[in-house]
Write a structure and sequence with these properties.
Blueprint: E1 4-5, H1 8-20, E2 32-36, H2 43-54, E3 62-65, H3 73-76, H4 84-89, H5 94-102, E4 112-113, E5 118-119, E6 124-125, E7 131-132, E8 139-143, E9 155-160, H6 163-169, H7 178-187, H8 190-193, E10 196-199, E11 207-208
Parallel strand pairs: 2-8, 2-9, 3-8, 9-10
Antiparallel strand pairs: 1-11, 4-7, 5-6, 10-11
Helix pairs in contact: 1-2
Length: 210
């Protein structure tokens, strides 16, 4: 796959322009966009840049991070603090993401999205109020492993890191999670499955497939 060098600013602008014309295939008035990638790839930063780029284009957006939908610690650590399978399949509350984030954006939904549900530091519910998303405004959901859940995204962006870059940019205390990303690449193939691929090995000089 041929990739083109680009700056983060231009990338955000190009994606924002693309979202202006994005029409969900199921007739929903709210486009649903995934920014998929390991924390080391910083998918949330790109999602925030795109939301900012949409403002002067007259379009609001809501940015939601999957890390705000972690399951309680008693469930995440049921099999130990460094269980790779639990991290891959059991850390994120996908049911809550369906119910509180994606469900309200189906055709006929209310368009009220919960921005987060669980605080991993206090291990308590955040009690954040729902955010009303105007018709035509996109949901920008970011986090790891998003493309394996069957979520109804209308556009998917995957921020990819080589194995070496992922290891370098992941804190040593989190290296135990690396096999989960290897499994994700092997089983889901996000670089091939995503609509847009961003190679983020060099955080200063990304490249994408346009």
């Amino acid at each position: 796959m041929r990739l083109e060098a680009i700056t983060w600013e231009r990338l955000a602008d190009r994606l924002a322009d693309r979202l202006l014309d994005l029409r969900p295939a199921d007739g929903s008035p709210w486009p649903r966009v995934a920014f998929d990638g390991a924390p080391a790839a910083r998918p949330g930063e790109l999602a925030a840049r795109v939301a900012e780029a949409l403002r002067p284009r007259g379009r609001a957006a809501v940015v939601v991070g999957a890390e705000g939908f972690l399951r309680p610690a008693s469930l995440r650590y049921e099999y130990g603090h460094r269980d790779v399978d639990s991290y891959y399949d059991g850390w994120f509350d996908t049911g809550a993401l369906w119910r509180e984030v994606l469900g309200p954006l189906y055709p006929g939904g209310e368009g009220r999205v919960l921005p987060d549900l669980w605080d991993p530091v206090t291990d308590r519910a955040t009690r954040s109020p729902a955010v009303a998303l105007p018709p035509g405004s996109p949901l920008l959901l970011h986090g790891p492993f998003l493309l394996k859940e069957g979520f109804p995204f209308d556009l998917t962006v995957h921020l990819a890191l080589s194995a070496g870059a992922l290891r370098r940019r992941t804190g040593e205390e989190e290296h135990w999670t690396l096999p989960a990303y290897e499994r994700y690449d092997r089983e889901t193939g996000p670089a091939q499955a995503a609509d847009v691929l961003v190679r983020a090995d060099d955080p200063r000089h990304p490249a994408w497939n346009g």
